[in-house]
Design a protein that fits this description.
Blueprint: E1 17-22, H1 26-30, H2 32-42, E2 48-52, H3 60-64, E3 70-78, E4 81-89, E5 92-96, H4 102-108, E6 116-119, H5 142-155, E7 162-165, H6 172-186, H7 191-200, E8 202-203, E9 205-209, H8 220-227, E10 235-237, E11 242-246, E12 264-267, H9 271-294, H10 300-305, H11 307-321, H12 329-343, H13 352-355, H14 359-366, H15 368-378, H16 383-398, H17 406-413, H18 418-422, H19 425-428, H20 438-452, H21 454-461
Parallel strand pairs: 1-2, 1-6, 2-5, 3-10, 6-7, 7-8, 11-12
Antiparallel strand pairs: 3-4, 9-11
Helix pairs in contact: 4-5, 5-6, 9-11, 9-14, 9-16, 16-20, 20-21
Length: 462
């Protein structure tokens, strides 16, 4: 079977390289590169991408062997229907490995057309090490490479850039900018350059959301048969996607992704969207998964097919989580419907026990704030979310399948009472027995789970 190349999928006319991308992994290729490819096709953008390999060992040779082409398969539920979409991505112009061609990396800084820098160097990528040197070829850290690249661009008299980091950390743009400025000062670069970083470049904070399962091991050969060619860079993801970009709204006039119908939101405040994701998507997972596992379910798909568990999650979202999030109701409702479709994706076998990993810290971040804010707002406790705390205690007390920090596991091996769990400030950041009515409600639900079983308890609480 032939391998994907320009012979199989000829490129359209070459496009100016307007994006420098640090990272060649599955997420960026299934998210940002896909968006730019769609916008190119629809005529709202005319943009090529140069990928920079951010670490010494990477996948650029595999991409290069396919003329920088690859196939993206989006599959899942969308608007109530199971869909598959196959697209050969042609938005990557070329690649640079700065570890064996540092001169090419610096030469890219002279590109007049360059405007955007996209990155996904993992959560640990945006870090100031204090050990990078100006003369390193290349600098070891991602911010070190960016600082050297920007200085080269500054010396060449070129305009500043817009940074769109996709690393999954809070304030990712702010963190990157801070690390770059620290490197500039460490290297004793002149104040005019430091001022240029501050005034001529934009570091946006972003939120990205798409489940990317990557290369489909075990299915690849069958998919190749359907495609009619082999693709060693085949990438697979869900249809849902969301990119929220916090920065000057003028960026939207240059990055014309929404005009191509793509799920990109430009905003001056990303916090409500992060809150929406953490409280609704992640909160729905965490508040449902432990009760469902105790009720005998194994996967999220099984939960969605059960009317009681589905109703449990629906009530948690609609009646208890959404009311405390300050965004338009229609946006929240649309996001809720998308959550259900994502959880119903027949191509993703999402195990409850994998979601249950470190549930104590997840509950504290994703569910507890909603419980406290709901009580403050309504003067009463949210029933489903309060029940989910009882399910958490029952799950950890049972011990079967629980995976967490050893401190957490050791605590539950002592078979603590509901009071002891809620009073553990190291878990929750406060003594939850002091929340009026909470201990009594959790204890009641806990007894119901023990006496009647989780499945019957779920029926009662909904």
């Amino acid at each position: 079977m032939q391998r994907l190349s320009q012979q199989i999928k000829p490129r359209s006319a070459s496009r100016p390289t307007r994006v420098l991308q640090f990272g060649e992994g599955g997420f960026l290729r299934a998210f940002c590169d896909w968006m730019i490819d769609v916008a190119n096709e629809k005529g709202t953008m005319d943009t090529g991408i140069t990928i920079v390999q951010p670490i010494a060992k990477g996948m650029l040779p595999l991409l290069n062997a396919q003329d920088n082409l690859y196939t993206l398969l989006l599959r899942g539920k969308e608007n109530g229907e199971v869909k598959k979409d196959v697209r050969v991505i042609t938005s990557i112009n070329d690649t640079i490995n700065p570890y064996n061609n540092f001169d090419a990396f610096l030469k890219a800084a002279h590109n007049e057309d360059l405007r955007f820098v996209i990155s996904n160097t993992t959560e640990a990528g945006i870090v100031y090490t204090g050990t990078d040197k100006y003369d390193d070829k290349p600098q070891a850290s991602f911010p070190g490479k960016v600082t050297r690249f920007l200085h080269e661009r500054y010396l060449a008299g070129k305009k500043g850039l817009v940074f769109l980091p996709c690393e999954l950390i809070d304030h990712n743009g702010d963190e990157l900018k801070e690390a770059v400025l620290k490197n500039a000062k460490l290297w004793n670069l002149d104040e005019k350059f430091i001022n240029w970083i501050e005034t001529e470049n934009i570091f946006t904070n972003t939120l990205v959301d798409r489940i990317v399962t990557g290369y489909p091991r075990g299915e690849a050969e069958a998919i190749f048969e359907e495609l009619g060619y082999e693709d060693q860079q085949l990438d697979v993801a869900e249809p849902f996607g969301l990119w929220v970009i916090e920065g000057p709204l003028s960026i939207a006039e240059e990055l014309k992704l929404p005009k191509a119908g793509l799920p990109v939101i430009f905003t001056e405040d990303v916090k409500p969207y992060k809150l929406r994701k953490v409280r609704m998507l992640n909160g729905a997972h965490t508040s449902m998964v432990l009760a469902a596992y105790l009720a005998g379910f194994e996967t999220v798909g099984e939960c969605m097919a059960d009317k009681d568990v589905r109703a449990y999650m629906d009530k948690a979202l609609t009646d208890e989580i959404m009311p405390v999030i300050n965004l338009p109701k229609n946006e929240l409702q649309a996001f809720k419907e998308a959550i259900f479709e994502r959880f119903e994706n027949p191509f993703n076998r999402h195990l409850l026990l994998s979601i249950a990993l470190n549930s104590v810290s997840k509950f504290r971040a994703r569910v507890l704030p909603t419980i406290l804010e709901y009580r403050e707002m309504k003067g009463e406790l949210p029933r489903i979310l309060t029940f989910s705390m009882a399910a958490l205690i029952a799950f950890y007390s049972k011990g079967d399948g629980a995976q967490d920090d050893q401190e957490v596991l050791d605590f539950f091996t002592k078979k603590p009472s509901v009071h002891d769990v809620l009073a553990n400030e190291s878990f929750w950041g406060e003594d939850l027995t002091k929340v009026p009515g909470f201990e009594a409600a959790v204890a009641k639900y806990y007894e119901t789970i023990l006496e009647k079983g989780a499945k019957a308890a779920i029926k009662e609480v909904i």
